[in-house]
Every structure is written in structure tokens, then in C-alpha cells.
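User: New here, any thoughts?
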Amino acid sequence: MMTSLPVRKIVNLAIMTTPFMAIMGATPGFIVGDFHFGRTLAGVSFIIVFSSVIWVINTSLLLLSLKSGILTKNWMRLLTASVLVLIIVTFVFFVIKDSDFIRNIPRPVTVPPFSNRFVIAPISQALAINVVVFVLIELLMLREQKNKVSVENEQLKLANMEAKVNSLKEQLHPHFLFNSLSTLRSLITRSPEKAEIYLEQLSELLRFSTNNSKAVIPLSHEIELCKNYLTMQKVRFGDSLDFNINIPEAIINNIEVPVYSLQQLAENAIKHNILTKELPLFIDIYYNGITNEIVTVNNLQPKNSAELTSATGLANLNERYRLLGYEGINIQKSETKFSVGIQLIAGDTHAKSL
């Protein structure tokens, strides 16, 4: 995986490290012979300039390797940079060794006259600086590549999570649509007026389903969706069904929940409980301030077949919460009541991006 060259970061790294390398390289000027400020300052300045040249050489070679595909091996770039540094140092040494500038710099009395054999010292120092610069650039590139891989992994993880959540969400549609159309056909025969109301609510639900592609939606939208669904079922079952939704306005703002969560819980209650005029079903949806949950509770009067299928819808919702990074739903069951609490998702969390 090729990482683009972070030129600005390399420049910042060079600015931070070059003065330290210059001071360390000029240390012999402090400890050999008599200290002379001018000689030491000249040494520091020279190393700063030459270190900058080494930074440019290594950065250029790295850029060449990224663009052209040559010098892709670390040892190739290090060797090429070392050869270039060696040529430059040797050239500079023999050009300026007899210059007046060099002759006028005071030297310690213990150092022999400036001669050709002393070219070994600056070459060794330059090559050492080259190795340090090369290592610093490689460490920076490794960190950049690690950050890039980390970002790509997060993006893949998010995309995979979104696909799974949407897959679970889409599983709800065929079953709901089939039941709704069956109910509509029955109402057309028995009560055309109720069928018209039912069809209007169904159209609203289908319009929402078509326009919505998010895994989580504002709580206010989900409440409206659930109201439409329960109104449809009220048309269907009449006095056999009653419901109440009581959630404070202060809770609704800036809060999100998985799409179809409340609607699914209401559907689950209607699907798996007996609804008659003698045994009506009551669905109550409210906010629990202690647990900070929206709770859907109904009186428990299960159908005989409920045990076989009652866990499917709840497992679906629980899995969607898990994929969004939350613990899941809170199921409570007693002899007379069945309740499910769902967690609230803050509107500015990562789940919103799904």
C-alpha cells in the first residue's frame, strides 16, 4: 500500500531535529582545545546547512520511489543517498579546504594543520547524519501508513456494519407488507370506510420506508411512524386494541433510535398476543427516566403459537443495536406484562452517520 508523501510533516520534522543534530555534531568544538565561539558557531551553521541538504536528498529519493516505482527498497534509497552525500562532502571539502574562510577560523593548538587526510572525519559525520535522517523519515512514513490503514479499516468496518444493519432492517418489510395487504383486503370487503383510512396510513408508512435509507432516525420520526402503524391496527381491531404514547418533548430533541424499533415492538405485541373485545390488548410506550430508555409494555396474553416465533423480531432489533455499538434491548417479563426497553442514541454519535 503506497502512502503519499507528507512533505509538510517531513519539513516540520527536519526543522525540529536539525538544530539538535548540529549541536551534537559541533560538540567536539566545545571539548577539543581552546573553545572559540566563532569556530563553534561556524561548525553548527555548516552542519545545519548540510543536514538540510541531506533532508532534501532523502525526501527527493523517497518521492522518486513513490512516483516512479524505482528505489522502492529501503536499502537502495539509503545507499543512493549515502553515495550522493559522499560525493557532495568530498567535493565541498576539496573546494573550501584552502579557502581564506577556513584559514581564518581559529583552531585548537592540538589539532594538526588542515590536511587531506582529515576528509574522513566530515565524511563519517555526514554519513551518520544521513542514516539518522533516513531513519526519521522512515519512521514518519510508517506512522503515516499506519494511520492510513487504521482509517481504511474503520471505513471498511463502518461500511460492513451499515450493510449488516440495513440487511436486518430490510428483513422487516416483506412480512409487514404482506400482513398489511391481507388486512386491507379484508377491510375492503367488510368496511370500505375503514379500508380507506387504513390505506391512507399504509401509504404514509410506505412513503416513509421508500424515502428513508438510514439505520437510525430521530426519535420524533420513529414516534410518528409508530403512531401511524398503531392507528392502522386500531382501524383493524377496533376496541380490541388500545395504545398510549407518552414521551416528554424534552426527551425527543436530539435523540435517535434504530428505524422501525418502536414500530417493530408494537407489531411484536400485536402479533403474539390475543386481541378480543373480552381480552383487549393495551400497549403503553413511555420514557423511563431511571434507565434512560423508551419502554414498550403490553399486557401478556400470548397466543398458543407465540413461543415458536416471538424471539425473531426481538433478536433482529437486539442485533441492530449490537451492530451500532450498544448493549442491546432490555426485556422484562412477568406473569401479566411484557416490556422491552430500548436505549437512546445521542444525535451527534457515530451511529448517526449510518
About this structure: The CA atoms of residues 88 and 123 lie 9 Å apart. Confidence is low (pLDDT under 50) at residues 107-115, 306-310, 350-354. The chain is about 65% helix and 10% strand. Residues 7-162 form one domain.
